[in-house]
Fold:
Amino acid sequence: MPGANRLRWLGWVALLAVAVPAPLVLGELQLFTASRIVIFGLWALSLNLLLGQTGLVSFAHAAFFGIGAYAVGLVWLHLGWSAVIGVPFSLAAGGTIAFLMGLVALRAVHLYFSMLTLAISQLLFVLAFTAYDFTLGDNGIHGIELPPFLADTSQVYWFVVAVAGFGVLALGIVWRSPFGAALQAIRDNRLRASFIGLHVRRYELAAFTVAGMFAALAGSLFAIVNRSAYPGLLDWTQGAVPIFIILLGGMFRFYGPLVGAIAYVLLEEVVTRETLYSNLVLGAIFLAIVLIAPTGITGIVERVVGRLARRPSPGLTSLPEPLAETLAGEFEPSTRDVET
Amino acid sequence: MLHVDGLNSSYGASHVLFDVSLVVAAGEIVALLGRNGAGKTTTIASLVGFVRQRSGSITLDGRRIDQLPSYQRVRAGIGVVPQSGRVFRGLSIRENLEIVRGRREKVGWTVDRVFDVFPDLRPISHRDAGLLSGGQRQMLAVGRALMTNPSIILLDEPSEGLAPVVVQAVGSLVRRLKGEGIGVLLAEQNHRFALAVADRGYLIERGRIHYEAPAAELLGSEQLHRHLGI
Structure:
């Protein structure tokens, strides 16, 4: 549909047109909120490479965010280098640790894979929490100094947008590449994917590594904006944030998590300002999405637009095949070919 | 050339294939006929390494492949067309073909060559594969198998659920594969269709091969009557 393509491009241009000149109109506090949107958007996009595209549920995504933050903090603390060096360094750190973690965790599938990511990421959390000589332990690293070109909030914001923009572009290229299509095939059906010669585990490892890299990149930007890195960032419960963002925005479109990040950060601000029990409200919203609109905001919008254009949009009105479709669908031998 | 010798397979504790031996030569169409539940699909699943093999050997073009994982068997030259032509929904037709990682050949199959064989798919190559008709899906599934540059293609019930005129088209498709020098193992319940295209046929019942004969001889034979109950 060329019309949909044009709309999508318009959307990206509009996003840039709003994001880039934002410091000219927004106050310091609002700019801080805008930075959160950009950072959480990148973080959720990187997780969606696993969740939406490959069908892998990882509980380790907070760990990679934290690793990115520590990449900035530790480079500044121990090496005395500019904190900004930690930003590209976070890609290498996140990628390396994700690769090693994936080697272990991807030996299992489905729930067992998820549990392994949880266990290993908690190990990293404890490491950050207790290694006082290296990470300053549970105190965390605070007051990270920024170089002169990041002296004021606007400059920090533009830096964040530029780096995150690179990250979004890179993830977008991955999403649309044949490699991305192969990941989608694996999500649809691992078994069938191996029948066209795909080495499923190797593809999953590559996806896990790339996701870890860009989660760490998002974390490094967090450390730049907040000038701190602390163990709480690695805690697995933090990993719920990008999952919530992805479900809110919709996991079956590349831009879904970006839409989700805008909605989440604004929603969170309103809810925490207006109510006492913010998690209760956010939890209820989460429940409603899962039960009523599993394709998220982008799914709802596309359905409405599709109806207005009197054209169904088949890609999003229904969920894809269950992530764990088993051999029953492929060969149906358990009911048909077994000796009786 | 596919050479299966004394294959025994099991699902968990239940033994499902008993001493299955069969041969498919290059450019030969071989039918595997049997009732529902006789072991046709299990045979195919065993050949691609999905069912646990207890004993026996599978040799493809002189190379033992029975200890390899599924994706390496595919890369060794076994193409699979699963039941009712299951394709990857959510991916376009072109993407379904592009993601294939098959055997490396000097002059291999390309997306363009597949579209030469199935010209109907070319103009809709960007369409979501989930929106295809049964016949189109079957073409795409065969095209996807061709993209692995196979020396043997395993077809699991390709006629199932298709209208008679489409079944005819599948028949000429199978002959086309033969023309490309590819061996075809055709697991079918529809013996009339299968024997019309096949060179040879095996009868399978309760996980055992009971009879083997040229297709012309099988058609209307007493054995066919006995083992298929027709």
Notes: Residues 28-54 of chain A form the longest helix (27 residues). Chain A touches chain B through 33 residues (CB under 8 Å). Residues 312-340 of chain A have pLDDT under 50 and may be disordered.
